[in-house]
Amino acid sequence: MKRLQEKMEQEGRVLSAHVLKVDSFLNHQIDPQLMKEIGEAFAELFQKAGITKIVTLESSGIAPSVMTGLVLGVPVLFARKRQSLTMTDDLLTADVYSFTKETTNRIAVSNTFLTKEDTVLIIDDFLANGQAALGLIDIVQQAGSAIAGIGIVIEKSFQNGRTLLEEKGMRVESLARIDSLQDGHIQFKEEVAK
Ligand code: G4P
Ligand code: NA
Ligand code: NA
């Protein structure tokens, strides 16, 4: 997605050879117009997949997911990282290991919002080592819902997340793919015409 790549080049800050800071439009401050275009892009990619629900992870997955849900006309369910006071239903949970933080965190959704009749699109802001996406896949599969694919805003193609997801037979669609962050520069994997 050309607009996204331009925004990453203009406002992204390469913090190291493996971390890109995008706090001005995705991870802290949010650019609603760009999110809207991201939602339209995901909706177009998955428009024929019969999506009934979007599943994401708080907090940075929510904005692109809501915009996609708006276009597709389906609800957005976000997994929580912390136990909620009001989430008293039976929970579906998965343990997600973070390589950067070297900790394991439990993520959870209420089992009332996913059924065997659902076809789910999983969305997240970043794909790095794929552990968050794998946790979301686990939760959706516990509910017996079908998974149409994974929509990622920014994929770091030099990390192994995509490989792990494809090994599970998942369709992975990323709007921007970073080949390398060497020398403070974003090298994209391929120039997308759009
Ligand atoms: P890891 O696989 O590399 O260990 O990363 P991990 O899943 O633990 O991700 C930790 C957090 O960092 C996640 O956000 C993830 O989206 C984000 N992240 C991973 N790589 C990058 C990167 O290059 N740039 C940015 N900006 N974020 C990255 P989170 O903790 O779930 O936070 P949030 O969803 O509340 O924003
Ligand atoms: Na994040
Ligand atoms: Na995230």
TrEMBL record:
According to the UniProt entry, its GO molecular function terms are: xanthine phosphoribosyltransferase activity
User: Mostly located where?
Assistant: cytoplasm
Keyword Transferase tagged: yes
Q: Quote the subcellular location field of this record.
A: Cytoplasm
Q: Which Gene3D superfamilies match?
A: 3.40.50.2020
Which EC main class describes this enzyme? transferase
Supply the SUPFAM superfamilies for this chain: PRTase-like
Q: What does this protein do?
A: Converts the preformed base xanthine, a product of nucleic acid breakdown, to xanthosine 5'-monophosphate (XMP), so it can be reused for RNA or DNA synthesis.
User: What is the protein name for this chain?
Assistant: Xanthine phosphoribosyltransferase
